[in-house]
């Protein structure tokens, strides 16, 4: 049964892989070394045997004894020469290959070829020395054979064969083989220990996760990045892009086929401040910037590892998208305020009417009902005639009820007319502008303990004009230029200073303007001009 490596833990896998690599490498190197050593030893012994054979073939006494076929002289001489040169044997034959000397007397006089099957032709016929490896009567040996020439060095008169047994070579090889086995075992053990140490170190670096888990997390990360509507770009410590998603490419208007990975961020986005965060380590949150001709809200966060900055990740989204969400929330909030105000006001009226009925003041109850009915009918008639747009009319009715709830009056000029609102002007933006201005006017009037806020509207001419006047304490002339800045407010506490800033931003988008001047009696007057023919360029 074949077991997959994936069924083992990372630590076991690394030990097995490193151990097998050590076995294969050591085995391969050992096999090559033994083969090379065997070949080298054979060659060295052969050269030594040939050198001894040549030396013996040149001894005058040997030449003379061969020519006279004097085996009595040659026999002890060859034994002495073999002993002196540590050779296993020295054999001498005549020009016909008949032994004249041999370690065994009984083989003297017999042909040399019957010992190793070699007819000694290179030496006897051509006078050339050579090396032979063969198994003879004395065992496997390496032999060096040299021709014996006569005294005039003209004719071959015999042959000398010097042999060294291969058992010594095998003994050397066996010693090396044993050493090799020991080295293989030690290498395997060392590799297992190295694998164990490296696996522990590696597991710590990857938070104890297995490779398959890392692969799944990588896929999940990519899926998560692509599912996020915000653009995301991350750079490493060298400022090179390591991560980005499709939303980032689309938001920045980059070519979808552009290769971004491993490119310097400054080459892709020269105006990016990611390198500043990389150097300072200070995060940026909700920063409004212009990049690639786009107004973005950006967050930049440094990546830390062992208190060292290893990179920066940035998330960003187009500001107009956030503004759209903000406007939708504002509209919903205004609808909720309208319903709450109406509910609260009618609840109070109903309680008052119920009380009058209980005490028997029916005439007063009927008068109150008639008064409320007449007041609301007049307002509703004005809205139907002057403001046919349901969204703007609903906003004004809500603010009217809100004013009554606060004990104030929102007086809408009966000569007002707002019938020609162009279709290109988003109603939620118009509601945000008028709603914020009325809310500010109500708060300013209430804080000054006055009662009335006045609103007039006209759509005559080329602009839509709204005029909201309060009875507050007014705004000092030196603050007129900064009252529309984000966070600037005269109110106490947090969460203020955004309404007028939002109004100005929305008007800039619509091509409109807003003027601030003192009211006729006290307080401030805000006049809004929104051109009918302005085309939204954003």
From TrEMBL:
What are the subcellular locations of this protein? Cell inner membrane; Cell membrane
Q: Which GO terms describe its molecular function?
A: ATP binding; phosphorelay sensor kinase activity
Q: Name one GO biological process term.
A: regulation of DNA-templated transcription
- Tell me where the transmembrane regions lie: 180-199
Q: Which Pfam families match?
A: HATPase_c, PAS, sCache_3_2, SPOB_a
Annotated Gene Ontology cellular components are:
plasma membrane
Q: Which reaction does it catalyse?
A: ATP + protein L-histidine = ADP + protein N-phospho-L-histidine
Alphabetically ordered keywords of this record: ATP-binding, Cell membrane, Kinase, Membrane, Nucleotide-binding, Phosphoprotein, Transferase, Transmembrane, Transmembrane helix, Two-component regulatory system
Residue intervals of the Histidine kinase domain: 341-534
What's the EC number here?
Answer: 2.7.13.3
Top EC class of this enzyme: transferase
Q: Cite the PAS domain residue spans from the record.
A: 225-254
Membrane protein topology class: Multi-pass membrane protein
Q: Which domain of life does the UniProt lineage start with? A: Bacteria
- What name does UniProt use for this protein? histidine kinase
The gene from which this protein is expressed is citA
